[in-house]
Specification:
single chain; alpha/beta; 7 strands; about 35% helix; globular
């Protein structure tokens, strides 16, 4: 993970809000399954429930479809949550070693709570003060459905990044037939080149999440100042209420 300053995280959050209307997001996280030919002497370690061999590319992406941090090579039998928890990016995030700002007010909500910055992930990730996940799919009321819809708009950035990566580097369209160490190096190289291409040339992409229908989306302690924390559950509740206010609502 490249070292970033507070202003870099604020810029990422501003870009996420501009693209997805979700405030204070400093990244979207998810794991991508990379198919490969069975490594020698690996047993079933890389064998997945989808019935093929793979390793996992765990990524943290920004709003411009670039990789902020990656972790490559985890067993296909491991869950996304387990892989992320054991990764260096997660350990540095939890230990507050990334120079991430404490928090700020939401747009048009200067008299409300100061909300921390966070990364967004799907329901596979556990509850955390640093990770914002969607509400469970069952028994969703109106405000929770709106929150999940807005959350999906932000989280799908990482899925679009995977699509851009695979479309540019076609090696991901077939099982990679090399030893596991070389496979990891190939994946890392593709991610580095992906960021380089995004910065130098850009990639034309239709942001389809702008048209994500509401009916089909997938699914931190009290706070008086910036230095305090608010639980992930309380952040989710506060954002759910915030998103249905007139100054935060959007057309869907």
């Amino acid at each position: 993970m490249a070292n970033k300053q507070e202003e870099d995280w604020i810029q990422i959050a501003d870009e996420f809000y501009q693209r997805t209307n979700f405030p204070n997001v400093i990244g979207a996280i998810d794991g991508k399954h990379i198919r490969m030919v069975k490594p020698q002497h690996s047993g079933s370690s890389f064998y997945n429930y989808k019935k093929y061999f793979l390793c996992v590319l765990m990524t943290w992406t920004d709003a411009d479809y670039k990789f902020v941090s990656i972790d490559v090579g985890a067993f296909g039998t491991s869950s996304d949550s387990e892989i992320f928890k054991s990764s260096n990016m997660s350990k540095r995030l939890i230990a507050n070693q990334l120079d991430i700002p404490d928090g700020r007010h939401l747009p048009n909500d200067e008299n409300g709570r100061v909300i921390p910055f966070y990364v967004v992930g799907d329901e596979a990730f556990g509850l955390s003060s640093k990770i914002l996940r969607p509400n469970a799919k069952r028994n969703l009321n109106y405000t929770k459905r709106i929150f999940n819809y807005r959350h999906t708009r932000a989280r799908r950035i990482v899925e679009c990044t995977f699509g851009i990566l695979a479309n540019k580097w076609r090696i991901f369209y077939r099982p990679i037939d090399v030893n596991i160490d070389f496979c990891v190096q190939i994946i890392k190289a593709c991610c580095i080149l992906h960021n380089y291409v995004r910065v130098k040339d850009g990639i034309q992409i239709q942001d389809t999440f702008y048209e994500c229908p509401l009916s089909n989306f997938r699914t931190r302690n009290n706070m008086s100042g910036v230095t305090n924390n608010i639980s992930e559950l309380n952040v989710r509740q506060y954002l759910s209420s915030y998103f249905v206010t007139p100054h935060s609502s959007i057309s869907i």
